[in-house]
């Protein structure tokens, strides 16, 4: 696999979070929120509270065209943009969260937003702010070399979204180009699904471990604490996004408190299942 030499201190926080959860015989809990949703202030309040329960926070860069996301995240991204999100808000959030907690920070962004900001500047500023890595679900093949070079230079991990039906050779190639961990879909399709986890998910996680050698996070479709408990039994990390945003939408008068309550519920979920021996 390709990593920086050595990984940045911010990337090492992800390694530490995964090591701690592994020592506790559970998956790490990752929670996703678009920065700036529902407003800049409420977003920061929610993230600070979520950090009290999460091992990893996945900071979303709002996109005007979040084509791989379902309607919940699409609506949240649109609201964040309408509230005035700028890329500097991402770095500000990362700085504040790094200063106030030991929670590891990753960023989820579509490529267009990174390219518009400047690839090298984005990587350098993300690490300086405390971000340890990035998930770029639509990273174009033509831009991959530029991104990997910038990420390695900065000490960032690059976390790939794995196609559920990828061949063994494809998995090995993605693992060789990636670092930190890999990300597997818990359900087919876009984010926000509210249906049972894929029955093939445990097998996919096993294949990913064999062919990439990296820890495996499971997300996209973790809609209940019971789902989190189920996935915690065989994965290294469980990532929840749309379910947290739904809670915030349902309690629009107190979105930060709703996010905190959701975080506590999902944290309890990952602790319900003892992991099988890998």
Please report the distance between the alpha carbons of the first and last residues.
20 Å
CATH fold category name: TIM Barrel
Overall shape: it is: globular
CATH class: Alpha Beta
Pfam families: Trp_syntA (PF00290)
InterPro entries: Aldolase_TIM, RibuloseP-bd_barrel, Trp_synthase_suA
Subunit structure: Tetramer of two alpha and two beta chains.
Catalytic activity: (1S,2R)-1-C-(indol-3-yl)glycerol 3-phosphate + L-serine = D-glyceraldehyde 3-phosphate + L-tryptophan + H2O
What do you see in this structure?
It catalyses: (1S,2R)-1-C-(indol-3-yl)glycerol 3-phosphate + L-serine = D-glyceraldehyde 3-phosphate + L-tryptophan + H2O. Its EC number is 4.2.1.20. It comes from Streptomyces chartreusis. GO terms for molecular function: tryptophan synthase activity. It is an enzyme of class 4 (lyase). The protein is an alpha/beta fold. It has a single domain (9-270), classed as Alpha-Beta Barrel (TIM Barrel). The protein has helices spanning 9-23, 40-50, 71-82, 87-100, 111-117, 119-129, 141-154, 168-177, 201-212, 225-232, 242-250, 255-270; strands spanning 28-34, 56-60, 104-108, 133-135, 157-158, 182-185, 216-219, 237-240. Strands 5-4-3-2-1-8-7-6 form an eight-stranded parallel beta sheet. Helix 2 links the parallel strand 1 (28-34) and strand 2 (56-60). Helix 6 (119-129) runs parallel beside helix 7 and helix 8 crosses helix 9. The two termini are 20 Å apart. Residues 1-5 have low confidence and may be disordered.
